[in-house]
Design goal:
The complex is a heterodimer of chains A (about 290) and B (about 280).
Chain A (H helix, E strand, L loop, with lengths): L1 H39 L2 E2 L7 E2 L3 H8 L1 H32 L6 H13 L2 H12 L5 H8 L16 H25 L4 H9 L4 H12 L1 H16 L3 H6 L11 H11 L3 H27 L1
Antiparallel strand pairs in A: 1-2
Helix pairs in contact in A: 3-7, 3-10, 4-7, 5-7, 10-13, 12-13
Chain B lengths: L1 H36 L3 H5 L13 H6 L4 H32 L5 H13 L2 H15 L5 H25 L4 H8 L4 H12 L1 H17 L2 H6 L8 H6 L9 H32 L9
Helix pairs in contact in B: 1-13, 4-7, 4-10, 5-7, 7-10, 8-9, 10-13
The chains are: A mainly alpha (about 290), B mainly alpha (about 280).
């Protein structure tokens, strides 16, 4: 009797043992530091200094400064234009791939390369592309006489944000395109055949058959990409460091500068935490979509 | 009918042209990087034609192994290797527990795993920076390994949950009936069955660690403790940027990522169609 009970008890405890390492890591290395940053955002805290409680002071100051409002604006434009580029071009790419080419596999392998390379490597590649004096872009464009003299792609406040968005879209559109293409391939041919008999055109087939069929994939992809683009950091860090004149100062970049260059940890955290609720909403919606 | 075929041809031609233009634009930066990496610094700074090379010079690649790059590479290998070696067994246990058992707090745990993975690293990075200062792990490779685990372990667990869910329970139940313990069944039945999935997660986890940038930027200040991504980013000095060296370092560092992609190609495309891998494929 005792033995059976013991075995049962062990069985019941087993799942807790199994998930224990994951739980310990989440609590200790994510939960605790996260709780700590929330607390620090309510303090005046500099690197190496002691924390002094100031309530919502950091947040109130943020919303009063033009720099924070600017970083929200930049993040918004950056995310919006990136999503538009990635999904617009990605869809065209998927449809173009879906034409049943004989070298389908080769095409796909070549297209995905920008996404396969480590992002830091391609970021440095774009720094080179955009370089004023030695860079590739100015060389080609002046040679083709499209522009009379070299443009400062990353140094001109009017151009810099656009330049970084293009580089980022270059990196990610292949992924979106190939994902959508993989989705399109799961649409059964019989659905298209039925539409052909009914006399459906190309565009109507796309809108009424293909896209509804891959709706879930598109939704998941969309939310993942949105979360990822909003929190993006390294492309801006490598290409512009948030400049010139704060033109590319995404909130992640602003957080970094405030916390590690200025040394004001509390204020830096507050910048990111102010945006965090939005991210949380996106994550919850994403979880919902996945479940369905 | 004839007219429709004709129109179809035009669409096909337009798609073909689009793909060609796309490929040229997509591959131009990479072509140019490779080219820069095999030019001498003198030729690069002459600012003639960045799209051709006059004299192939492998000096930048040779220099990688006599400079700090060698140390960064070892750091990258140690950290990525350790993170993957720790994360995969723990993820297998965790995912197995979540898929095969009912217990209190299970739903909360699943959601936390997901949120941890998507946590903005710049934010959690500050928390880790403060924590590691307190416990003396700042500026150390062990600290870096712990930091990477905060996204690699949730990611691996999450993907394995999806994978285990699709495995048939019957074989495992048979093993239990035959007198296997739960853990025995996991080791002898489930893990071998899930081997392809585990391999995939292993390679993805390695790639994630291999390419990570923010955490070493925040947590390491000593150049000799840096992994490659932050190391080569430090070669940017405004007008004095060492382009050839940087590109050679970047290209060399890309080799494992490319090899892993080739190994996983079939799986990535299959997973993309069903949306199982999208959450994992974040960069």
């Amino acid at each position: 009797m005792g033995e059976v009970f013991q075995k049962k008890h062990r069985e019941r405890a087993l799942p807790y043992y199994l998930v224990l390492p994951v739980v310990v890591l989440i609590v200790g290395l994510v939960g605790y530091p996260f709780g700590n940053v929330v607390w620090l955002s309510l303090n005046e805290k500099f690197i190496g200094g002691t924390a002094k409680f100031i309530g919502l002071g950091n947040y109130i100051d943020l919303f009063r400064t033009a720099e924070f409002i600017n970083s929200l604006r930049v993040s918004f434009i950056y995310t919006g234009s990136n999503l538009a580029l990635q999904f617009g071009l990605g869809l065209v790419l998927a449809l173009a791939l879906n034409q049943k080419w004989r070298i389908q596999n080769l095409l796909q392998a070549l297209i995905i390369i920008p996404w396969v390379l480590p992002p830091i490597v391609t970021a440095l590649g774009w720094l080179w592309m955009y370089d004023d004096l030695l860079g590739v872009l100015n060389f080609i464009l002046t040679r083709l006489k499209i522009i009379p003299f070299g443009v400062s792609w990353l140094g001109d406040p009017k151009l810099a944000l656009f330049s970084v968005v293009v580089a980022h879209a270059w990196l990610n559109t292949p992924f979106v395109g190939v994902s959508l293409f993989a989705g399109l391939q799961t649409v059964p041919q019989s659905l298209y055949d039925a539409a052909s008999i009914d006399g459906g055109g190309r565009v109507r087939k796309l809108i009424h058959i293909s896209l509804p069929h891959i709706k879930d994939l598109v939704m998941i992809l969309f939310f993942i990409q949105t979360i990822q683009i909003i929190t993006t950091f390294q492309y801006v860090y490598i290409l512009t460091r948030g400049g010139p004149a704060k033109a590319t100062n995404l909130f992640s970049m602003y957080t970094y500068t405030m916390a590690f260059r200025v040394g004001n940890l509390g204020r830096g955290i507050a910048i990111s935490l102010a945006v965090f609720p939005l991210l949380l909403i996106l994550m919850v919606v994403l979880l919902r979509v996945r479940k369905e | 009918m004839y007219r429709q075929r004709k129109r179809r041809n035009w669409v096909r031609i337009a798609c073909g042209i689009f793909l060609i233009v796309w490929l040229v634009l997509a591959l131009l930066p990479i072509y140019s990087m490779v080219l820069t990496s095999i030019k001498s610094s003198r030729e690069i700074s002459r600012a003639e034609n960045p799209l051709t090379v006059k004299e192939v010079d492998l000096g930048h690649y040779k220099k990688l192994f006599t400079s700090d790059y060698k140390i960064w590479l070892v750091n990258s290998l140690i950290v990525s290797g350790a993170v993957t070696a720790i994360a995969i067994p723990l993820a297998i246990l965790g995912a197995y527990g979540i898929v095969r058992f009912k217990f209190r707090g299970k739903a909360l745990l699943s959601i936390s795993i997901f949120i941890c993975y998507l946590m903005p690293r710049i934010l959690l990075g500050i928390g880790l920076f403060v924590l590691f200062h307190e416990i003396g792990l700042i500026n150390s490779r062990s600290g870096l390994i712990l930091a990477y685990l905060t996204f690699v372990l949730p990611f691996s667990t999450w993907v394995l949950i999806g994978y285990f869910r699709n495995l048939p329970v019957e074989v495992e139940e048979q093993a239990l009936v035959d007198g296997c313990s739960r853990i025995g069944a996991l080791v002898r039945v489930t893990i071998p069955l899930a081997a392809p999935g585990i391999m995939t997660v292993f390679l993805f986890a390695f790639t994630l660690s291999w390419t990570e940038f923010i955490y070493p930027l925040l947590l390491i200040s000593d150049s000799v403790k840096l992994p490659v991504p932050v190391g080569i980013a430090g070669l940017v000095f405004g007008d004095l940027t060492i382009w050839g060296q940087m590109m050679a370092g970047g290209m060399f560092y890309s080799i494992p990522a490319i090899l892993i992609y080739i190994l996983l190609r079939r799986f990535i495309v299959g997973g993309l169609a069903t949306g199982t891998i999208t959450s994992g494929a974040i960069k």
